[in-house]
Write a structure and sequence with these properties.
Order of helices and strands: HHHHHHHHHEE
Number of strands: 2
Distance between the termini: 133 Å
CATH class of one domain: Mainly Alpha
Number of helices: 9
Largest sheet: 2 strands, antiparallel
Structural class: mainly alpha
Radius of gyration: 46 Å
CATH topology of one domain: Arc Repressor Mutant, subunit A
Strand order of the largest sheet: 1-2
Strand content: under 5%
Helix content: 40-55%
Length: 185
């Protein structure tokens, strides 16, 4: 008879019973593996293979699942026993089993409404000078660039005599609080 290739399987019924006993008492996979002298990754690989139905891993998978469910049942029984003496235990259990109904508000999702569109109502009052609304509304709309191209710059000759004739009193400026008329007081 030919020997199977690869490493020999470490999993045996005695190891399985030890791992399941630890898990039933509340140990994690990591701590159960360390206490039994196997790698944590090995235990997870055995669980994956057992989930696929390969023996002897399938029996390991079902035994481990039963052990973890038994631990969960023990914890629920302990909480239910404590409910009769402490209402916080009942509150805790309700929050965990029915979070949509009993979880604190800070853990519930808050529905967010989209922000409302910002609109401004504008009304124009226009003297149409006897024109119909269609005639007034069909005026050409020019962009600022078009306005700059079509509107010529006013050409003014600036001379000193036209801008300032020397009479300061006509300018109407004030220096300080007193009118300045050009004469010193």
């Amino acid at each position: 008879m030919k020997r199977a290739r690869g490493r020999p399987i470490v999993l045996n019924p005695a190891l399985q019973r030890r791992i399941c006993a630890l898990l039933q008492k509340g140990s994690t996979f990591k701590s159960a593996a360390i206490l039994c002298g196997v790698g944590e990754r090995s235990v997870h690989e055995w669980m994956e293979r057992g989930q696929k139905g390969k023996e002897p891993f399938a029996s390991f998978f079902s035994a481990v699942t039963r052990a973890r469910e038994q631990h969960k049942a023990n914890l629920i029984a302990a909480v239910m026993k404590a409910v009769h003496t402490d209402a916080k235990c009942a509150q805790w259990l309700l929050e965990r089993q029915f979070p949509h109904e009993f979880a604190p508000y800070d853990r519930r999702p808050i529905p967010v409404e989209p922000p409302a569109e910002k609109k401004i109502n504008v009304a124009f009052v226009v003297d149409t000078k006897g024109k119909s609304l269609e005639e007034v509304a069909t005026f050409p709309v020019l962009t600022p660039e078009e306005v700059a191209q079509t509107a010529p710059e006013p050409q003014r000759e600036l001379t000193l005599g036209k801008l300032f004739d020397g009479n300061i009193s006509k300018l109407g400026r004030f220096v300080g609080d007193l009118p300045f008329d050009g004469n010193e007081t």
